[in-house]
Amino acid sequence: MINRIVVYGGNGFVGSVIVEKIAKNGFFCTSISRTGKKNPHLNGRNEEWMKKVEWIRGDASDPDLSILAEANAIIISIGSPPLPTFSKQAFDEQIFKNGETNESVIEAAKKANVNQVVLISAHVPNILKRKGFGYYAGKRKAFIAAKKFVKSSPHRTAVVLKPSGIYGTRYTKSGVPIPLWLFMKPISYIQRVLPAFITRHLPAKLVSVEEVASAAAKAAIEIINSKNQLLVIENEQIIKTYFP
Fold this sequence. Notes:
Layout: E1 4-8, H1 15-24, E2 28-33, E3 53-57, H2 65-68, E4 73-76, H3 88-111, E5 116-120, H4 134-151, E6 157-162, E7 166-167, E8 169-171, E9 177-179, H5 181-193, H6 196-199, E10 207-208, H7 209-223, E11 229-234, H8 235-240
Parallel strand pairs: 1-2, 1-4, 2-3, 4-5, 5-6, 6-11, 7-10
Antiparallel strand pairs: 8-9
Helix pairs in contact: 1-7, 3-4
């Protein structure tokens, strides 16, 4: 059987790096996004890994089961930033983007008989873990869907990644680079060299997009033949398990 991994949000900040990691590790990958196109910054590049990637247009809130029919695993990398909301509309949008779209993909995985799912969630500080924070409420909704996915069959496994703030190079829709690493990477370095008795009182360590994408790809590849597990990979584990 051809091992194929489907990535929802495959042309996003994290998703695009996940797609590259999967392909470079020898697996076929289907990248699903609203545009159905590869990132503009990849235009003109003809690298070997790209031959293993198929870019497809799709809607996470209404997944096409035919696209998932040949998938061995699905990675869900969709959501919106953790912004505060000052209206019901904004709150509902956070729930939709961070929760309901993820739920839809997980439910589609069940219907398509895909038994392995990797969910990119987030580390949320305890002080923000409240129902009134739309971002957290959405992420919580997606996490519950992952738990139910595992319980729905003894053959199913879900891996949930909970990274903290992510740095790297983000690209605009037109392909213009935004170097988030310029100010976030030095902070991350300081966080990692400080002694534990200090860092335990500080916010969670920042992680690179390479570290998160690597952990997600590794999880998807390793769970293809696993059964009935719910694995939660916390921020520190993402840092420790990084592979190129």
